[in-house]
Amino acid sequence: MLLCLTAIVLYPGGRLHQMQSVRYSFFKNFLSDLGRRVTFGGGDNRIGSQVFFTSVILFVLGLSACLLGLIRVHRFAPPARRWANVAGIAVALAGISLIAVAFTPLDESFRLHVALTDVAVNVLPAVSILLGIAAQRDQRFPRQSAVAWMLLSVLLVFYLLVITWGPGLGSERGLGIHVTGQKIVVLATLIVISYQSWLAEKYL
User: What residues in the chain have per-residue pLDDT under 50?
Assistant: First the structure.
């Protein structure tokens, strides 16, 4: 999080529709814009992109390790084991896709970056749903665990619907909806996984 904020401070500006904007816009710049070595307006962002690259790698490795830890816990409960195992496969696929996204900056590998992002965005709801079912079947966990996973699942599916069938990026309004949705999803994922970790510590 700190590295990402540092990358935001270092970002020289530039975004879709307003290439000469002065700084990073929370509601109009995607997180992926921070990974650009050259911004929309031609600004040099080599240092900021490296900082952001490091933040993405640490973010993905940290969340993946946490999710795999929760999956390992659920595997000790026979009714939840099957769901946890499938969730592990989905976590691996999403994690690999997000790591690959970090290695394919938008300004150098646009189509591959978008394709890899799409893989992660499509897989993450499955991760949340599967872990929600595993938590519901694992009697050592309170009901709040499954509820939190399902709330996150609803948000992730809604975001997927918005970016698939919602307004396009061709307008300022559409861009704002997509960018804001991305930030909400990232923050909600952090909150829910932190909450699940706290529940695991408390009840186990």
Answer: none
